[in-house]
Amino acid sequence: DAKTTQPPSMDCAEGRAANLPCNHSTISGNEYVYWYRQIHSQGPQYIIHGLKNNETNEMASLIITEDRKSSTLILPHATLRDTAVYYCIVWSNSGGSNYKLTFGKGTLLTVNP
Amino acid sequence: NAGVTQTPKFQVLKTGQSMTLQCAQDMNHNSMYWYRQDPGMGLRLIYYSASEGTTDKGEVPNGYNVSRLNKREFSLRLESAAPSQTSVYFCASKKAGSGETYEQYFGPGTRLTVT
Fold first, then answer.
1. Which of B34, B51, B48, B47 minimizes the C-alpha distance to B96?
2. How far A53 CA sits from the closest chain B CA (Å)?
3. Is the CB of residue B19 less than 8 Å from the CB of residue B77?
C-alpha cells in the first residue's frame, strides 16, 4: 500500500479556509485518496474520497494533483467544531484486499476563535 | 438508523481477566472491522470480517479473537487481558464488493483499561 505524509499539526482561524496537505508519492493507479477526521474521543468520521478528479461534498473539497502524488483537503469555512485530527489514507479495493484502510497519525487541525 | 453501536463504553479489567466487546451495525453492511487506538497513535487494525462467515487477521491480532455472529454483529474477545491491551477499541463497518469504494462507518469506541 502507498503511504501518506501529513504535517503533524496546523492552525486555522475560524471562518477562514483550512487547507490540509497530504503527500502520497507512491500511490498506484487503482488507489483512492480518502479523508477521515476524528474529533476528540469520538470514532473517525468519513469526509470525502477521490481517484483523479477533484471532488466536493457538503463537508469539504478534495483537490488531487494531476500526477496524483499529493492532495489537499479544503474546509471552506472552518468552525471551532472542525478542530480534529484529519487522516489522509490511500486505499485500493482490488484483489480482495478491501481491509487495508491504514490510518497514520494524521494532522491535528486546531481552529482558533 | 443507529449506525454502529458498541458495548460497553468503558471497562476496567484486571490482568488475566477475559471479556468480550460487542459491536452491531444496522446498515446491512457486509464488512466489519476492529481497530485499537493508543494515545497519540493512529488506528491499527486488529481483525476484520470481509463478509458474514469469514474473519481475517489485521496488523495486531495477538491476544484477541473475533466472532462474526451474523451479518449485524462482530465481537472481539480478550481471553487473558494484559496491560498492553489498554486502549480505545473502535468497531467499523462498510458495504463491500470488488471494485467498489464505500466508506467505513465507525462506532463511538470502548475505552478499556487493564490494571
1. B51
2. 15
3. yes
Predicted confidence (pLDDT) per residue in B6-58, tens digit: 999 999 999 999 999 999 999 999 889 999 999 877 788 999 998 888 999 98
The nearest alpha carbon in chain B to A87 belongs to B42
Which has the closest alpha carbon to A68: A9, A28, A16? A28
Higher model confidence: residue B40 or residue A48?
A48
Q: Name the region of B72 (left: φ>0; alpha: ψ -120 to 50; beta: rest).
A: alpha
Interface check for B104 against chain A (CB to CB < 8 A): the answer is yes
A4 phi and psi, to 5 degrees? -120, 155
CA distance B80 to chain A (A): 26
